[in-house]
Amino acid sequence: AKRSGRANYQCYTAALERETEGAFLIEARLRNSLRDGGLQLHYQPVVDVKSGELIGAEALVRMSFPSGTDISPDKFIPIAESSGLIAELGKWVAREACRQHKQWAEQGLDLTIAINVSPLQFRHQNFADTLRDIISDVGVDAERLEIEVTESAIMDNLDEAVAILNRIKSLGMRVALDDFGTGYSSLSSLTHLPIDKLKVDQSFIRSLENDAASRSVTDAIIALGRSLNLEVHGEGIESENALRYLQEHGCDQAQGYWFSRPMPALEFMRWYQQRRQN
Ligand code: C2E
Ligand code: CA
Ligand code: CA
Ligand code: CA
């Protein structure tokens, strides 16, 4: 027993070392990318469920190793948070998304651009001031920008979150609660939140077809949104059936691989033009 305990321990240590090394490499890559312009934003279409029209895009950050291997944001965002790089990364994302919004607007494509904000970044002292400065610097219409913050980030400290959200709203920006349904919102606290939209978590949308509980949760979120006068947005739509379900149940907006994967800006514009011709 002693022996296998020791073997387990060594195995555990080796795994931990590999992981630490991985995190170290990713942090180094992130530092370099921030300095050398090695980050990219991809954009995923957001479609109005009733009209089928393109109305927005979610900006999603991309980073890769020099070898070309992509590093998932699910992996490097937590590392950006623990290494203190998240503020700088968040600023870059916001500025780049604003710049892209402006360029598209000048080309006649006036979309609402959604920007993801990590919990730590959201709680950062002058987050709202930073946004205000970027918006006025780039010169964009704040009403076309949407901040996505997760339900759990907000519920962690509700009073503080409401104060921050109020400041964001006072700039004219929109706010969406991301990954909704997976956190622990109390229904009464939701009525006090200055938000515009609920994004139904992908896990429910993806199992709409074969899981009655997921349908119930989705229906409940749509009803909740309606009664609180919030838009409801389904993400992770991968099939026509899922889209039809949302259509029939009164969901407002949809996003997912069924329409398109996230794309670089140029490809996004081509996708839009092609879609308009058909
Ligand atoms: P999220 O905000 O929930 O973003 C949605 C994720 O689902 C994206 O993954 C998107 O590519 C993926 N997705 C969209 N439609 C489908 C679909 O139909 N099927 C499937 N299987 N997946 C779909 P991605 O880009 O890898 O981002 C993962 C997470 O990383 C995001 O989850 C978000 O939490 C975080 N993230 C991404 N970009 C940023 C950023 O600029 N700032 C911050 N703070 N976080 C970001
Ligand atoms: Ca999001
Ligand atoms: Ca989400
Ligand atoms: Ca997520």
UniProtKB/TrEMBL annotation:
Q: Which domain of life is it from?
A: Bacteria
Q: Where in the cell is it found?
A: Cell membrane
Ranges for the EAL domain?
23-276
Question: What is the protein name stated in its UniProt record?
Answer: Diguanylate cyclase
